[in-house]
Records
---
Amino acid sequence: MALTDEAIDKIKAMILDGELAPGSRLPKEEILAGQLGLSRNSLREAVRALTAMRILITRQGDGTYVSSLEPHLLLESLSFAADVSQGRTALQLLQVRRLLEPQATGLAAAVLTPEDLQELRDILDRSRAATTVEEFVAHDIAFHLRIVEAVGNPVLSMLLRVLSTRTQRVRIVRGSRTRHALDNAHQDHEQILGALQSRDALLAASAATVHIAAVEQWLAASLNDDPLRAIDD
C-alpha cells in the first residue's frame, strides 16, 4: 500500500472510531503525523486527497477540520465524473437516473404545494422561451430538481444532480437533432407537470420514466451506430 493511501486509511479510521468527530479540528500536523506514525509529507498528501473528497475542509489561517460528513456533501465530489462521462459510461448514469427519478417524481405528486406547481409552470414557460441549448438546459435542471427537492431528501437530490449534470445534458442535447430533442423535451415536461397537478403519482412516475428513457434510447442508438462518436466518446 502506498504511504499516502496508508495515511488516508488511518485518518478515515480515526473518523470511523469517533476520535475525530464531524466538525472537529485535526491536531497540528507534527502531532498528528507522530500519532499516526507517518511522515509529514504523507500526511499532507492524505489531507489534500481527503479535502478533495469533502471529508476534510481547510479553513485558511485556522487549520483543517472534519466536514459535516453529510452524504449529500460527500456526493458532490462525484459530479466531475458525471461531467466527463462519455459513451457507455454516460448511458449507465442515465440508466441509474431512470431507476431513481421517476419514483421521486411520483412521491412529489403528493407533497407539491400550489405555489410549487406554479413555480414549475413558470420554469417551463421560461424553458420554451430559451434561445440557446445552455439556457434550455438550465431550466430543464431547475424543473427536475425542484420536483425532487419536494421529496425532502437531500441525498436523493444530490445523487440525481450527480447522475445528470449540466455539462452532460448540454452535450447530449447538442449531440442529438437539437430542435427535435427540444420539442420532445417540452412535450414530456408538460406531461409530467400535468400529472403532478392532477396529484396522480403513478402517471407522474410514468411520464418521468418515458422522458428519461427517451434520452437513454437515443444515446444507446448512437452508441450502436457509432460507438466512437456518441457524446464525444
Note: The chain is about 70% helix and 5% strand.
---
Amino acid sequence: MLHYALVFLVIAIIAAVLGFGGIAGAAAGIAKILFIIFLILAAIAFFRRAR
C-alpha cells in the first residue's frame, strides 16, 4: 500500500513539473488516500500485535 502511494506521489510530481495540473492533482489525491489507508492498517496491525 505504501509502495502505491509513493508511486502516485512520484507521478504527481512529474506531472506537475511537466505542466499537467489536472493529472497531478488527481495523482496527489490518490496518493493521499492510499497513505491514509496505509496508516490506518498499520495502526490496526500494531495494536493487534500489542495484545
Note: The longest helix spans residues 21-50.
---
Amino acid sequence: MFHSVGASGVTATAATSANRIITGEVDVGSTPEFGRSVALGDVTGDGYSDLAVGANGYSDSISNRGRVYVFHSSGSGGIGATQATSANTMITGQAGDDQFGYNVTFGDVNGDGYADLAASAIFYPSGNDKNGAVYVLHSSGSSGIGVTAASSYNTRIEGENTTDELGWNISVGDVNGDWFSDVLTGAKNYNSSTGRAYLFQSTGSGGIIATVASSASIIISGEATSNKFGFSVSLADINGDGFADPVVGAYGYSSNRGRVYVFRSSGIGGVSDTSAITADTIITGENGQDYFGNVLHR
C-alpha cells in the first residue's frame, strides 16, 4: 500500500518502498493467490478507508475454497498489519474450489453509513459446476464485518447456468440516486460466452435481496457468441449528473478486438437497457487481439 504524500501524490518508484506490505498466509495449497483482488472502503465508519484483499486460491482441508481478509485502518498511520493472519476479519469460502474472493469491492448497500463487502466465488457451487455467486456481507457498524464464514452472508446471488461464472468482476454504485448502493456484475460465459451483465438495485435498508441472477433488476445481454460481455464491469458517474452509469467490457468482440459499452442512468428510473447494442456509447478497439475492455476502472 502506497500513501499519497499530498499534492505530489504517490512518489514511490519501487514496490519495496510501499508504506505497508502485507504477506499472504501459508496454507495446504500451493497458490493461495493473496492479492488477486483488492478494494478500499470504510467498513467501520471512522472516516478512514479499510482494505479488503481476496485470496481465491486459499485452501485448508477443502481445496481452493478461498478467503477474504479485511484490514481496518488505524487512523493517520493507515493499515498496520504486515501479515494476512493479522487481518481484523478473515472470511472463508463455503466449499472446495469455490474460489471465494476472486473479486471484492465495497459499497453501502443498506444505507447505514458503513461500507458493506461484496465478494464473488466464480466456481460456486463446486469446481465442476461453475454457476458462480456474489456474496454481500453487511458491516455490523463500528466493528466492521462481523462474520468469518461466507455461509453467514446477508445475500448470496447465484449464477443462472453451469459454467456462467457469475462474479468475474463486481462494481458498486448508486444508479438511481436513492442513496443506497447497487451492485453490477457479469457472467462472461453465459450462452456460449455471449455474456451478460446483471444490475441488482438495493431495496433500501434491507440491501440487495435477490438470490439468483435471473432476478436482477436489469439484465443486459451481449451481442454475439464469444464476446464475453460482462468480463469487466464498472459503475461510475460519467456525465456528472449524480447517478452512477454502468460500463461493461466485452474483450472478445470481433476476434478479440474488444468493445466497451456505456449505459447512462436516466436518473431515478435507473437503467432500462436489456441489450448491449442499445448502449448509449459503444467504443470499439483498434485491432484484433487488442482485448480492448479487458479491464475497467472507476
Note: The chain has a mean pLDDT of 96.
---
Amino acid sequence: MNHPDDFALDGNAVAGPLSEIFGVDVTSIRVTCEDCGATAPLARVAAYVRGPGSVLRCRSCTSVIGRFARSRDSIWLDLRGSTSWQLRATS
C-alpha cells in the first residue's frame, strides 16, 4: 500500500503556476502553518499535484496549508490552513 508521502513533491513543483498568480518567484515565500506554527519556505512544503488541483501540506504536521486549481477561465486559491505568506520586498 502506498503511503501519502510517496506522492509528495516539494513546493518547487507548484512554483510555476503560483508564480503566474503572484507575479514573482514564489519558492522563497515563507509560509506559516496555522496548526503547528512551523514556518518554512514554500519550496520545502509537501506538494500534491496529481489531482485536478494542487494541495500543499506542512512537512512538520501534515496539515493542509493551501490549495489551488486552475480552470479554463479562473484560478481558485484557498490559503486556509496557513497564517501567513511572507514575501521579501524588493527595493
Note: The chain has a mean pLDDT of 86.
